[in-house]
């Protein structure tokens, strides 16, 4: 394969299966849900391809039935982190020297294994461990994971084909070297696809990785790790080291070979990690690359020309799918006074049909929030609204953590556009609505732009084209992913590259060449075909002749 230039074609997005009663996918999924619900898995660390058990374990539970233990995972300490660094550096030599066609082949094999052999297993693990319903698991752990892998396999051909100009007599080329050292991949609980991609995009570019998954997504992440191995990923290319973030992080950030951080998670954690890197800057061989996508305070802006049913559907799906635990979830909405009574009624009708419960009951639109800390944090925001004279809980507002961490879809109406739930990321099923006078549309846009430190996603609803244009200009830096007449969630790889700026991250657009390029350290090579043999400039030679 080294004697050919190979291009991986533009892929199709993985089709989303329906899981309707009686379909084969529903039967397979049910079988895997039953199997995984009846066993307790022992999850080791995987370092240099070897399973390592430290005996320091924590349980993995179902958020919707927290008495049910799905697995126990072993936690890494500083010694295991050192072993993992050693394994990653050792694997680096061989992995980077492979032709990229081999790296892409492994990547595409992972996608194929997930699409066919392990779709039900990975979806069931995501449903049970992260409390996603079948549809939310399908669009995440099956489709988005596969799309990241296949689209990146295509984008790498584009990157490698990007070569400099050569004047006659010279050959210039760029080699897209991986980074010198290892990458630290720190993944969030809420998307199995993101966990896969934070590892596989640096790996595709020839890097090796230490992976610390979130403690609340370890079951699906372990299934992923097993799939990576089955696909033929060489030992040590990804080292799976669950554990306490600070323990693993401190051991990594003090290592001279730390070359890059690939992070998705909260803004608070990212800021802490960046400071940690900065404090160790003098120790490193190279300036580490830092890529981090963080939180959001995502908005829905509604103009009086919008349609009530479209807005109401976007509110319910955008704010409450996966219990609002998407960085992109709508958490503040701005409604014109003329439409508000109609939208309020329609949203109320829709919410009266929403049920919250166990993922194994397929009719539930919503399930549990991820853990007790998250439940308490969300309920605390709801209490603040209940106690404030500036806010009123108009739908939901109740939670129950006795069996699972269940919270009703909650809508707060506020008179204060700077009420705390309009500004801070809550990461739960809570939407706050502010009603403005129709004539104050322009002032309202300014408010949207200046209310929160984030800049991730946002949606504008209007059927007046000039309004869309005006609002998108006013909100230019308020969102890295902006939607016209659609909910602000559900970006599709290859169609809406994802990421935001301001306090929402470095905006390196997951699922695009922009992200992949960060995992390279390009080297330019110039070759002179006939090197000069006289140090003098041409005009000096001419002067002597005369
Ligand atoms: N912008 C995006 O693309 C995007 C996508 C998904 C999630 N998110 C954001 O992620 C957050 C939810 O995910 P989360 O709760 O898993 O985030 P988190 O910040 O709590 O954790 C992310 C990862 O960092 C680890 N970690 C936490 N503290 C650490 C420390 N001191 N040192 C080292 N590692 C540490 C965690 O164990 C986890 O693996 C939300 O804020 C959400 O908006 C953003
Ligand atoms: N990319 C996902 C969100 C990822 C963050 O949680 C979306 O567009 O909804």
UniProtKB/TrEMBL annotation:
<comment type="similarity">
    <text>Belongs to the aldehyde dehydrogenase family.</text>
</comment>
<dbReference type="InterPro" id="IPR005931">
    <property type="entry name" value="P5CDH/ALDH4A1"/>
</dbReference>
<protein>
    <recommendedName>
        <fullName>L-glutamate gamma-semialdehyde dehydrogenase</fullName>
        <ecNumber>1.2.1.88</ecNumber>
    </recommendedName>
</protein>
<dbReference type="InterPro" id="IPR016160">
    <property type="entry name" value="Ald_DH_CS_CYS"/>
</dbReference>
<dbReference type="InterPro" id="IPR016162">
    <property type="entry name" value="Ald_DH_N"/>
</dbReference>
<feature type="active site">
    <location>
        <position position="293"/>
    </location>
</feature>
<dbReference type="GO" id="GO:0010133">
    <property type="term" value="P:L-proline catabolic process to L-glutamate"/>
</dbReference>
<keyword id="KW-0642">Proline metabolism</keyword>
<keyword id="KW-0520">NAD</keyword>
<comment type="pathway">
    <text>Amino-acid degradation; L-proline degradation into L-glutamate; L-glutamate from L-proline: step 2/2.</text>
</comment>
<keyword id="KW-0560">Oxidoreductase</keyword>
<feature type="domain" description="Aldehyde dehydrogenase">
    <location>
        <begin position="56"/>
        <end position="513"/>
    </location>
</feature>
<dbReference type="GO" id="GO:0003842">
    <property type="term" value="F:L-glutamate gamma-semialdehyde dehydrogenase activity"/>
</dbReference>
<dbReference type="GO" id="GO:0009898">
    <property type="term" value="C:cytoplasmic side of plasma membrane"/>
</dbReference>
<dbReference type="GO" id="GO:0004657">
    <property type="term" value="F:proline dehydrogenase activity"/>
</dbReference>
<dbReference type="Pfam" id="PF00171">
    <property type="entry name" value="Aldedh"/>
</dbReference>
<dbReference type="InterPro" id="IPR015590">
    <property type="entry name" value="Aldehyde_DH_dom"/>
</dbReference>
<dbReference type="InterPro" id="IPR016161">
    <property type="entry name" value="Ald_DH/histidinol_DH"/>
</dbReference>
<dbReference type="InterPro" id="IPR016163">
    <property type="entry name" value="Ald_DH_C"/>
</dbReference>
<dbReference type="InterPro" id="IPR050485">
    <property type="entry name" value="Proline_metab_enzyme"/>
</dbReference>
<dbReference type="InterPro" id="IPR029510">
    <property type="entry name" value="Ald_DH_CS_GLU"/>
</dbReference>
